[in-house]
Amino acid sequence: MKKIAVLSSGGDAPGMNAAIRAVVRRGINKGLKVFGIQRGYAGLLNGNRFIEFEMGSVADIIHRGGTILLTAREEGMFNPEFRQKAVKKLINMEIEGLVIIGGDGSFQGAIALEELGMKVIGIPATIDNDINGTEQTIGFDTAVNTILDAVNRLRDTATSHERIFLLEVMGRETGHLALTAGLAGGAESIIVPEIEYDLDEVCRRILRGIKRRKAHSIILVAEGAADVYKLHSEIKQRIEAETRVTVLGHIQRGGSPSAVDRLLGSRMGAMAVDLLSDSKSGYFTAVSGRNIIPVPLTICITEQKEFPNELYKLALDLAR
Ligand code: F6P
């Protein structure tokens, strides 16, 4: 293999740049030519967004959030004709291997390209941490810490005013962010799409706190689990206490990556190149305990990642 390319796709995640840097530097160290494709699959399909990297192209990016390659959510990858065109473009440029950095939607695109004969390796990057087969994705740790910072700040003002705060965090389909930040931040209730919530129980927990002179309550709500404003008015109808809503939004996606995410990006990026240069394809780099291992891409589309119910119970048990 002489030429490889790398792209980032789907929602950006802090640590993607560390992964790009590792792909480029490991690739060049191995004597490969490394290309970057800008704007994810959109850049690949349009064929006009290819840049050749040098060692210095990825200097000064390990600490930056976002992705220097830009990213997009591209529906065109679901069109077989477009996919053929994309593979043809890569073949014409004599690119034999592709590293795809992104979430499970991006991995579906990777599988489709592999079926057309392209060698592909995925690197899991999404703040949602919802990719089956890996314990952690790039970006999750930074986003959890961003939420924790918000929880700490809200707790200061919540305590001073003896208020209840509902904090909406990202996660349209999954509650890994809400759960992990909720447990680490001591939230009184955590509302996630995976588990049906009981409004009476949420209110009981608030009242129990007030009874034992707790000055505040923090309720973490994953965006896909409930309408946070509706929830707010329902709680207000039942409980006589001041409540406020904060929606954290895309702040969770930005910011300098944590050490954990920089390490994941660096280790996974290097492994992705090693796998390609060993002629391996159809895998993504996954966290298993303290190791990074190759796992078949198909694992992330055949089964959903299990929600850690035990952690959920623990979080509620400890925040009484
Ligand atoms: O998949 C990452 C994610 O941040 C989700 O948590 C969130 O629901 C979604 O992307 C938001 O997407 P967009 O940036 O397109 O609004």
How does this model look, in words?
By secondary structure, the chain is of the alpha/beta class. The protein has 2 domains: 3-139 and 257-302, Rossmann fold; 141-253, Phosphofructokinase domain (Rossmann fold), CATH 3.40.50.460. It is built from 11 helices and 11 strands. The protein has helices at 16-29, 40-46, 80-92, 104-115, 140-161, 176-185, 199-211, 228-238, 259-277, 299-302, 309-318, and strands at 3-8, 33-37, 50-52, 97-102, 119-124, 164-169, 189-191, 217-222, 243-247, 283-288, 291-296. The strands form 2 sheets. A 7-stranded mixed sheet has the order 3-2-1-4-5-10-11, sandwiched between helices. α1 runs parallel beside α9 (259-277), α5 (140-161) packs across α6 (176-185) and α6 (176-185) packs parallel to α11. The longest helix has 22 residues, at 140-161. The termini are far apart. The model has no long low-confidence stretch (mean pLDDT 96). Bound molecules: 6-O-phosphono-beta-D-fructofuranose. Residues 11, 103, 126-128, 170-172, 223, 253 line the site of 6-O-phosphono-beta-D-fructofuranose.
In short:
This protein is of the alpha/beta class. The protein is built from eleven helices and eleven strands.
Key terms for this structure?
single chain; Rossmann fold; 18% strand; binds 6-O-phosphono-beta-D-fructofuranose; 11 helices; four-stranded parallel beta sheet; 320 residues; 2 domains; seven-stranded mixed beta sheet; alpha/beta; 42% helix
